[in-house]
Design brief:
The complex is a heterodimer.
Chain A: H1 12-16, H2 18-21, H3 27-32, H4 49-53, H5 60-69, H6 75-87, H7 95-104, H8 117-121
Chain B: E1 3-7, H1 10-16, H2 18-30, E2 33-37, H3 48-52, H4 57-69, E3 74-77, H5 80-92, H6 96-106, E4 118-121, H7 122-128, H8 130-136, E5 144-148, H9 157-160, H10 170-177, E6 181-182, H11 201-218, E7 222-225, H12 228-236, H13 238-242, E8 251-254, H14 255-262
Parallel strand pairs in B: 1-2, 1-3, 3-4, 5-6, 5-7, 7-8
Helix pairs in contact in B: 1-2, 2-14, 4-5, 7-10
Classes of the chains: A mainly alpha, B alpha/beta.
C-alpha cells in the first residue's frame, strides 16, 4: 500500500496500539516504517487508539479497512464473510436452534432476516 | 418512569451469549427500562462486513431503520463492535444526502431512516442511570476485581461522545458502585485477544494469557468485562489459554452480571451458578 502523505512516521500510533503491545504487528508498523514488510492489516481490534492519538489526523482506521478490501482474507475472516453473505449473520444459526435457545432463557423470540437480505443491502 | 428502548443483539448475544442479554434485561428492568429486541437483525458490520465491503453503512442503517419501525428512538447494544458501527452509521445518517441515498435502498423493504435513532452501549446507559442503579444496589460486593474496558465503545471520542476517550473511567465507576474494590493490574486497556482470533489464533490466545497472568499476579478475585467479546475469549475459551496452569483459572463476569449480583438478583436470572462469588 501507499504510505499516506500526511503521516510523519512519528510512531505515536505504534506506542498506543494494543496489538503491538502483545507482540503483533498491525498496519501502524508500516506507518511508522514504510520499509517494514512484516505487518498485517488484519491484526486490528478496531479500538482506534492510533487514530485518536495521531497528531496529523491520518484516518488510520479507514486505511486499515481499505487495505483489507484489497487482500485475500485470512481463513477465520473468510469463513465469517461466507456466513454473513449466506444468512446475514457472521455465525450461521437456524431459526429452530435460535428459538430453542431463547425459549430456554425466557427471552423474546427473534425472527432471523431472509437469507438474501444482506446481499440486497450491499447491492451484490 | 418506565422507559422502552430497542435492543440490538448482534452475533455475540444472538448466537453465543444469551446470558449477556438475560443479565442486561434483569438489571435494566430493576431500574424501569424494558428492552424490545430488533427483529430480523443483520450483522452490524464490525469487523466482518467492513472488512470486505465499503458499503457497510447500508446494513447498519437497515438495523437502525428497524428501530424506527418499532416506534422507538434509542437502541441499546452490549457489544463494543455493534455500538461503534451503529453509532457511526447514526452519525452518517445526519447528512441529508447520505440519508436519501440509504433510503433509496431501504425503500423496497418498506423501511426508511429519518436519522433520529440514538445508539447506546450498555456502559453509557448505565452511567446515565447511575443514581437509580445506586438506589438498587442493596447487596454490596466485597470482592477484588480486575476490569477490562471495552475497546470499541469510546473512540472516536468525538463520535462516541467521550471527552476522556483514551482513559475512560465509566466501567470503573460502575464496578465501584457495587461496593467491589477495583484492583489496578495494568491491563485495563490491553487487548483481550478476542478480535484477533479470526486473524491469528496463536496471537489471540497469547494476548489472553498475558492478561490472565497480569490479573493473577495482582491477586484479583475475578475479571470483569465491559464487553462480551472479552468474555468470549477469556471465559469461554479460557481452557485454551490456561491448560494445566491452574493459577490462571480465573472467574470472569460480565458487567450486568456483577451489577445484578449487587442488586441481589438471583444468580440463575443472570446466567450464573449459585454462590458464584463465594
Amino acid at each position: 500500500m501507499r504510505h499516506p502523505e500526511a503521516c510523519t512516521q512519528c510512531g505515536v500510533c505504534v506506542s498506543v496500539c494494543p496489538v503491538e503491545k502483545v507482540g503483533g504487528h498491525a498496519l501502524v508498523t508500516f506507518l511508522a516504517d514504510p520499509e517494514a514488510t512484516d505487518y498485517s492489516a488484519w491484526l486490528c481490534t478496531s479500538c482506534r487508539r492510533c487514530e485518536e492519538s495521531c497528531p496529523e489526523g491520518v484516518p488510520i482506521y479507514a486505511l486499515i479497512m481499505e487495505q483489507r478490501r484489497q487482500e485475500q482474507p485470512p481463513p477465520g475472516y473468510e469463513a465469517a464473510i461466507e456466513a454473513v453473505l449466506a444468512c446475514g449473520e457472521s455465525l450461521e444459526v437456524s431459526q429452530e436452534e435460535l428459538d430453542q435457545m431463547r425459549e430456554r432463557w425466557g427471552l423474546e423470540r427473534v425472527e432471523l432476516p431472509p437469507p438474501d437480505l444482506l446481499k440486497e443491502l450491499l447491492d451484490k | 418512569m418506565k422507559s422502552e428502548l430497542a435492543f440490538y443483539p448482534g452475533c455475540l448475544v444472538l448466537q453465543r451469549m444469551p446470558e449477556y442479554e438475560a443479565a442486561t434485561r434483569a438489571v435494566l428492568r430493576r431500574i424501569g427500562i424494558e428492552l424490545h429486541i430488533v427483529q430480523q437483525p443483520v450483522c452490524c458490520g464490525s469487523p466482518v462486513i467492513e472488512s470486505f465491503s465499503a458499503e457497510w453503512l447500508y446494513p447498519a442503517a437497515y438495523n437502525l431503520a428497524r428501530v424506527e419501525e418499532m416506534g422507538l428512538d434509542t437502541v441499546v447494544t452490549v457489544c463494543g463492535g455493534c455500538a461503534n458501527t451503529l453509532t457511526r452509521a447514526a452519525r452518517a445518517l445526519q447528512d441529508a444526502g447520505v440519508r436519501a441515498e440509504v433510503n433509496r435502498r431501504l425503500e423496497p423493504l418498506g423501511l426508511s431512516s429519518s436519522g433520529g435513532v440514538m445508539v447506546k452501549h450498555l456502559v453509557r446507559l448505565l452511567v446515565e442511570r447511575e443514581d437509580e442503579l445506586r438506589a438498587q444496589t442493596v447487596r454490596p460486593l466485597f470482592t477484588r476485581i480486575a476490569l477490562t474496558n471495552p475497546c470499541q465503545a469510546f473512540r472516536p471520542g468525538e463520535v462516541m461522545g467521550y471527552e476522556e476517550s483514551m482513559q475512560p473511567q465509566d466501567v470503573r465507576r460502575l464496578v465501584e458502585l457495587t461496593g467491589a474494590e477495583v484492583v489496578t493490574y495494568g491491563g485495563e486497556d490491553e487487548c483481550c485477544g478476542a478480535t484477533l482470533y479470526l486473524a491469528d489464533r496463536d496471537l489471540s490466545l497469547a494476548a489472553g494469557r498475558r492478561k490472565l497472568e497480569a490479573v493473577a499476579k495482582e491477586g484479583a478475585d475475578l475479571l470483569l468485562h465491559g464487553c462480551g467479546n472479552c468474555q468470549l475469549l477469556l471465559r469461554r475459551f479460557q481452557r485454551l489459554i490456561v491448560h494445566d496452569d491452574e493459577h490462571l483459572r480465573i472467574q470472569a463476569l460480565l458487567l450486568p452480571q456483577l451489577i445484578g449480583l449487587a442488586m441481589d438478583i438471583p444468580e440463575a436470572e443472570l446466567g450464573l451458578r449459585e454462590g458464584v462469588l463465594e
